[in-house]
């Protein structure tokens, strides 16, 4: 593996999809040079630890839970928001750990998820056409010419917002906030007080008995009081990701130190494109999204290029087919990739294939479709005798109204009550916990 990664100019010459057009090239250069001097946000050794855990996921010895914002915003990088996101993921993880009877690898879709690919470079409203909003890393959400101009100074804001988020996460996960008994107490409260939670009383009671038994025999391991928590994002913007790539002093290998786990999106996985070329050089555990247009040969070619040494834990395929397509589209991929002996973890993204526009104009998803895609994912793997490794969800710890259905029975007209996402709809706190209990039931059957 070469320690020399391609230069930014070389990557752009190859062709990088989904990049903003900056009006001032010199300002971009200044922002990139500044980023290159800043300390790492994560450490190479932590990335290696996560890679080993994802290898366990691929063998069925662990389950991966990845969740967080569709698109983070600078305004949302607050202590309250970070705590709420972390809290709901910890709550989900306790339920899934008990049901799966294996460790749950906890990965936040946070501290870096500030850029989004878009289906069009422009947006038109009332006859006015402006550049599309590509996430706070690129431009502003307000529909004004000034706001929508791509600004490279925002790349530095991404770094500082991510640093403050990671500092908070590290403090919460090691400072007692993640204590297992406390997290279970939050879940018990959800079951007791929420109409959506009442039907999961039996499983909550089982977990309660297990914890009481552990306490009775004096078992109090360190793992009860702290958790390992990792950060992830789609590594989309070449300028930011390249500037945050460093040579590890232990191994002399290049790592992307902006997040533990980074992935290539469905729109940027061109085999001869800049993203695949960049990703094949870094040593982080990496992911690649595969949608309904992906063929088994596409998956094999990507695996060969991104993980030529077939290293366990290195590559994760994140499938995003849609509830109506997963049972037909996924088996051929999994079957052929498995037959070729490719080392890969399979993760289900049940969000992106199930988006539609409600009659009220809001972009939304049906909770039942999200759940059905997860069920289809489990069904396919169970039929093939392969490992359903985990789930990636877009969610928040807040009581937003962005996805219809679930125990709260939110309908299309209820979306307007508290729709806060700037790009894609997210599961709210109650829907996230309900999903954890329902996926737990699938895990038990599997």
Written overview of the protein:
The protein folds into two domains: 8-178 and 227-445, Aldolase class I (TIM Barrel, Alpha-Beta Barrel); 179-225, no CATH class. The protein contains 14 helices and 14 strands. The chain has helices at residues 8-14, 25-37, 44-58, 79-100, 145-148, 153-174, 180-193, 201-216, 238-243, 274-279, 296-306, 326-339, 367-384, 429-445; strands spanning 63-68, 104-109, 122-125, 128-131, 229-234, 245-247, 254-256, 261-264, 286-290, 315-319, 345-348, 355-357, 363-365, 390-394. An eight-stranded parallel barrel has the order 1-2-5-8-9-10-11-14, surrounded by five helices.
Summarize the structure.
It contains 14 helices and 14 strands.
SSE layout:
Blueprint: H1 8-14, H2 25-37, H3 44-58, E1 63-68, H4 79-100, E2 104-109, E3 122-125, E4 128-131, H5 145-148, H6 153-174, H7 180-193, H8 201-216, E5 229-234, H9 238-243, E6 245-247, E7 254-256, E8 261-264, H10 274-279, E9 286-290, H11 296-306, E10 315-319, H12 326-339, E11 345-348, E12 355-357, E13 363-365, H13 367-384, E14 390-394, H14 429-445
Parallel strand pairs: 1-2, 1-14, 2-5, 5-8, 8-9, 9-10, 10-11, 11-14
Antiparallel strand pairs: 3-4, 6-7, 12-13
């Amino acid at each position: 593996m070469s320690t020399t990664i391609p230069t930014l100019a070389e990557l752009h010459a190859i062709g990088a999809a989904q990049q903003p057009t900056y009006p001032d090239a010199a300002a971009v250069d200044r922002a990139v040079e500044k980023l290159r001097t800043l300390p790492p946000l994560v450490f190479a050794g932590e990335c290696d630890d996560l890679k080993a855990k994802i290898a366990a996921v691929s063998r069925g010895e662990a389950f991966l839970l990845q969740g967080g914002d569709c698109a983070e915003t600078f305004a949302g990088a607050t202590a309250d928001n970070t705590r709420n996101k972390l809290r709901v993921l910890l709550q989900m993880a306790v339920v899934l750990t008990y049901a799966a009877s294996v460790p749950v690898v906890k990965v936040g879709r946070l501290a870096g998820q500030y850029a989004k690919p878009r289906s069009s470079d422009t947006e038109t409203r009332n006859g006015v056409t402006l550049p599309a909003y590509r996430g706070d890393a690129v431009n502003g959400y307000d529909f004004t010419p000034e706001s929508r101009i791509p600004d490279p100074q925002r790349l530095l804001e991404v770094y500082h917002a991510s640093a403050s988020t990671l500092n908070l996460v590290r403090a919460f996960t090691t400072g007692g906030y993640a204590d297992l008994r406390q997290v279970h107490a939050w879940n018990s409260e959800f079951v007791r007080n929420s109409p959506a939670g009442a039907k999961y009383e039996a499983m909550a009671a089982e977990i309660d008995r297990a914890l009481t038994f552990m306490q009775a025999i004096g078992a109090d391991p360190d793992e009860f009081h702290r958790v390992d928590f990792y950060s992830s994002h789609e590594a989309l913007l070449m300028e930011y990701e390249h500037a945050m790539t460093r040579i590890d002093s232990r191994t002399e290998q290049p790592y992307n130190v902006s997040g533990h786990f980074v992935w290539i999106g469905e729109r940027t996985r061109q085999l001869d494109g800049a993203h695949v070329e960049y990703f094949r050089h870094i040593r982080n555990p990496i992911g690649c999204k595969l949608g309904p247009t992906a063929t088994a040969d596409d998956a094999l070619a990507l695996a060969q290029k991104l993980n030529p040494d077939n290293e366990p834990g290195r590559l994760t395929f994140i499938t995003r087919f849609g509830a109506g397509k997963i049972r037909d589209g996924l088996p051929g991929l999994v079957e052929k990739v498995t037959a070729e002996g490719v080392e890969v973890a399979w993760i289900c993204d049940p969000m992106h294939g199930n988006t539609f526009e409600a009659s009220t104009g809001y972009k939304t998803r049906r909770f039942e479709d999200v759940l059905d895609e997860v069920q289809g994912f489990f069904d396919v793997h169970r039929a093939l005798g392969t490992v359903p490794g985990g789930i990636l969800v877009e969610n928040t710890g807040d009581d937003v109204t962005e996805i219809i259905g679930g125990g709260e029975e939110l309908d299309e007209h209820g979306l307007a009550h508290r729709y806060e996402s700037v790009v894609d709809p997210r599961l709210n706190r109650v829907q996230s916990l309900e999903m954890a209990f329902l996926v737990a039931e699938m895990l038990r059957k599997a």
